[in-house]
Every structure is written in C-alpha cells, then in structure tokens.
Amino acid sequence: MLKTYYLHGFASRFDTTSDKLKALAELGPVYGHDIDYTRDPEDVIEDSLDKVMRLIDEIRTFYMSLFHQSHNRILLPLPYNRKADQ
Hints:
This protein is mainly alpha-helical. The protein has one domain. It is 53% helix and 7% strand. The chain has a two-stranded parallel ribbon. Helix 1 links the parallel strand 1 (4-6) and strand 2.
C-alpha cells in the first residue's frame, strides 16, 4: 500500500474530491494540507515539513503500539481465571 503526502501547487489547494487525489487514493491513503504560498517560502517549507514529521510520528507511534501489544500478549500471559473453567 502506498501512503502519499500530497503538496499542492501554487493557486491550488488540498482537495480530496479532485481527480488527482482520488486516483492517488486508489493506491492508498493520501494526506496533505492547504498551503498558503503567499507567505515567506522558508515558513511554507518549515510548516509543511512540520506537518509531515508529525504525521510520521503518529504513524510510527501507532505501529509501535501495535507491535508492543502483540508482543505483550505473547510474553505476558493473561491471569488464569479458575472460576471461568468451572
């Protein structure tokens, strides 16, 4: 599955109903945000990188959480409940 972070061009916006984003969404989830290109270019780049890095951190945290949950189930057995067996 392809995960895409879409940065739109000047005089455009992040529009999930556009044909381009719909086509990308067929390959996997598409993330993005509206960019105000009238701002200072360094601020635009910094804000965009910040949003991308935050998303990467969220994805990493989610997958690490799944990883730890799966290993905790294997390594830490649930307490045995004798009453349930009677």
